[in-house]
Structure formats: structure tokens, C-alpha cells
């Protein structure tokens, strides 16, 4: 009997165990310790930015940046309707309104023309999301944003290792935010990161991350901050993963190539599409099955599960959730119903990918 194939699992080697053990033994178990600075340094170098700041998770990273930029009640922040809920919730935490717009049908990231149409005199920022590992069209987004004086914050939670024209995501806007949840390309257990070249923004985020404690007067606070710190233990895990980041991202790409080999010719299946200007990090292997509705999709996932194969549905449109206003986003509403993500992780074998693909082909 074949072992169950999960949708995702982290790759933990002796290096991860050694670094975390070292951190535990050092006694620096909270948010002070050498692994924090090291993780930030390694990550900034990898993304090609001046500054990187660890946070407790990716949601906190988005909230922290928005707060540091002074975004609040009365402001509007444009985001894609097709994303994980964290992008919208982080905007809501500030009291600003997330304005949900449609996506590009090829790369599934925010559509630059929908962004432009949604701009009002209250628009303060845009948070393009590099969905499932594909970078959003940052050239177009940056040029529209510049014309309208709008701040650009990349939600790169899902796209560690993706790039455009040789420049890594996280360094393509004013700042970027990342997640290191256990299913991401690299993990620190829970965790997040802010990347930027803007020193003032970095310093403000740095202070706000730790309750905005004064540097010169301990336990004095000039504004309301947060405890959004990462622990040294998490950073130790993150450092080990950063030492392996090229092999970890590389394996995602190899997995995708195999999926393409085994599924590519099937006319009912549409795999991830990558624009020629983009380098995809293939966080998820995405398949859209022509004509599938929600009921059929759930049935397909249940059948895969009975064959020992895990999968996950595409995100529901944010605008369908009860907390957010309904909007007319036809592409988002069309695509989410027929899409599922298939297993991809470091230890997945070619034989397992072949089994997943053959099972899927038989079921559809
Ligand atoms: C697009 C996107 N943004 C933000 C987040 C939030 O990250 P975290 O789960 O670390 O809070 C995620 C998490 O998975 C995500 O997929």
C-alpha cells in the first residue's frame, strides 16, 4: 500500500536540527539572539535589498508595514480579490478599507488595468500578491502607482525565489512581506519578513515590532506598537533553510517540470501559466480543470483523497466572505471554481508525481 501523499511537508535535515538545537542550548529562546540578525542578513542578501526585518508571521508583516506607513481609517488599499484572507485582514486591522479588484487570467495576480480603474482620491496603497509563486506584473503596477502617488507593498508570502528581470520579489516595490509558515518554500515554523531599501520605513517597522520602545529610554513608548517579534528558535530554523534556499526552490521547479511532463498534454487540464517576463517559484502546482464546478471539484478532491492523494482548493474570492463587500470580479469568480493545487514539496519523488498525475487523468 502506497503512503499517503500530503499536499505539503517541510524539508528538515540535520542542518535544521543542529541550528535549532544550538539556539535552544544557547538560552536565547525568545526574540534576542544571533540567529535573528543572521536570518535577516541572509534574507536581505537573497532578495537583493538593504534591509530585512523578521516578524512573527506573514500577516503581522503586512499589518506592520501598513501601520508604519500611516495607513488607517478613511484610506483605501487596493488588493486582488483572489488571495489568502491575510492580505485583506491585515488592511482591515488598520481601519482602512480593502478595495478588491480582479486578476489577470494568465498569471492569476492582480490585473494592472483593474487596479487603475479602482483608484480614487482615498487610495493610499496597493498590495499586489505574487500568487502561488508567480510574480505580479510589477512594471505595470509600479508605473500606475507612481502616476497616482500610491505606495506599493508586495505580498510575497507565497513567492520566495520568484523574480522579474533578475530582481527578486520583495525588492520590486517600496517594500515586500513574506511568510515562513510550514508549507512555504522555506519555513521557520511560523514567521514572516519585511524587505525594503527604505531606511526610514525599516527603522519605523523595527520600532513598531517591539511596542515602539524608545532606543534611548527603556520602557518609554511614543506610539502604539505591537509584539510582532520572531523568536531566535524560529530564526535558527530559517537560517538553515536559507542555507538551502536554492535547492528548496529548485526542487519546486523540478516538481513542476515533472507535472508538466505527465499532465501537459491533457486538453482538459490547464497548469500554471508563466508570463515570459516572469520567473515563477512554483510554490503550488495549480491545475484548472475545464468546465468543473464547485461540487464537481469537491468530489474530485474527495476521490483523490481516497486514492491517498491530498490536494487543496483554490482560494475563494475574498469578496464572497461575509466580512467583505461583494464586488464584480468575473475572472476571479470563474477561475476559483475549477482550480485545485496538487502535492509539491522537497521529498516528493518522480514516482509519486507520476501516480498523482495518472490518478487525476483517470478521474477526469
Ligand atoms: C498571500 C498570502 N499573504 C499572507 C499570508 C500570511 O502569512 P502567515 O500565515 O505567515 O501569517 C499568506 C499565508 O499563507 C499568504 O498566502
3D structure, described in words:
With 364 residues, the protein is of the alpha/beta class. It has two domains: 14-243, Type I PLP-dependent aspartate aminotransferase-like (Major domain) (Aspartate Aminotransferase, domain 2), CATH 3.40.640.10; 245-363, Alpha-Beta Complex (Aspartate Aminotransferase, domain 1). The protein has helices spanning 14-26, 34-47, 58-68, 85-93, 112-117, 138-147, 199-209, 232-243, 245-263, 294-306, 330-338, 350-363, and strands spanning 51-55, 76-80, 97-101, 123-126, 151-155, 163-164, 167-168, 175-179, 192-196, 269-271, 278-279, 285-289, 312-313, 339-342. The strands form three sheets. It has a seven-stranded mixed beta sheet with strand order 1-9-8-5-4-2-3, with helices on both faces. Helix 1 packs antiparallel against helix 8, helix 2 (34-47) packs parallel to helix 8 (232-243) and helix 9 (245-263) runs parallel beside helix 12 (350-363). It is globular and about 65 Å long. The mean pLDDT is 97. Residues 57-59, 83-84, 86-87, 129, 155, 157-158, 179, 181, 192 line the site of pyridoxal-5'-phosphate.
Amino acid at each position: 500500500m502506497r503512503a499517503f501523499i500530503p499536499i505539503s511537508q517541510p524539508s528538515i535535515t540535520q542542518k535544521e536540527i543542529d541550528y535549532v538545537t544550538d539556539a535552544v542550548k544557547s538560552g536565547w529562546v525568545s526574540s534576542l539572539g544571533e540567529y535573528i540578525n543572521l536570518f535577516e542578513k541572509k534574507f536581505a542578501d537573497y532578495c537583493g535589498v538593504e534591509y530585512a526585518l523578521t516578524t512573527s508571521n506573514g500577516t503581522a508583516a503586512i499589518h506592520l508595514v501598513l501601520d508604519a506607513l500611516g495607513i488607517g481609517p478613511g484610506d483605501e488599499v487596493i488588493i486582488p480579490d483572489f488571495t489568502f484572507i491575510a492580505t485583506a485582514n491585515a488592511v482591515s486591522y488598520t481601519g482602512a478599507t480593502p478595495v478588491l479588484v480582479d486578476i489577470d487570467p494568465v498569471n492569476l495576480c492582480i490585473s494592472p488595468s483593474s487596479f487603475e480603474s479602482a483608484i480614487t482620491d482615498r487610495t493610499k496603497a496597493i498590495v499586489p500578491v505574487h500568487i502561488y509563486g508567480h510574480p505580479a506584473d510589477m512594471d505595470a503596477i509600479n508605473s500606475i502607482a507612481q502616476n497616482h502617488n500610491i505606495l506599493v507593498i508586495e505580498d510575497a508570502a507565497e513567492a520566495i525565489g520568484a523574480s522579474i528581470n533578475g530582481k527578486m520579489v520583495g525588492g520590486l516595490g517600496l517594500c515586500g512581506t513574506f511568510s515562513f509558515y510550514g508549507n512555504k518554500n522555506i519555513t521557520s515554523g511560523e514567521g514572516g519578513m519585511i524587505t525594503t531599501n527604505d531606511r526610514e520605513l525599516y527603522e519605523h517597522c523595527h520600532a513598531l515590532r517591539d511596542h515602539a520602545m524608545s532606543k534611548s529610554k527603556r520602557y518609554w513608548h511614543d506610539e502604539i506598537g505591537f509584539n510582532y517579534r520572531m523568536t531566535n528558535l524560529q530564526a535558527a530554523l530559517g537560517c538553515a533553510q536559507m542555507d538551502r534556499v536554492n535547492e528548496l526552490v529548485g526542487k519546486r521547479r523540478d516538481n513542476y517540470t515533472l507535472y508538466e511532463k505527465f499532465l501537459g498534454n491533457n486538453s482538459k487540464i490547464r497548469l500554471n501559466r508563466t508570463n515570459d517576463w516572469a520567473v515563477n517559484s512554483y510554490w503550488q502546482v495549480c491545475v484548472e480543470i475545464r468546465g468543473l464546478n464547485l461540487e464537481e471539484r469537491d468530489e474530485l478532491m474527495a476521490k483523490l483523497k481516497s486514492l491517498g492523494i491530498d490536494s487543496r482548493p483554490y482560494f475563494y474570492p475574498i469578496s464572497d466572505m461575509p466580512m467583505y463587500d461583494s464586488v464584480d470580479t468575473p475572472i476571479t469568480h470563474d477561475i476559483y471554481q475549477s482550480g485545485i493545487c496538487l502535492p509539491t514539496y522537497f521529498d516528493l519523488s518522480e514516482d509519486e508525481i507520476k501516480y498523482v498525475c495518472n490518478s487525476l487523468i483517470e478521474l477526469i
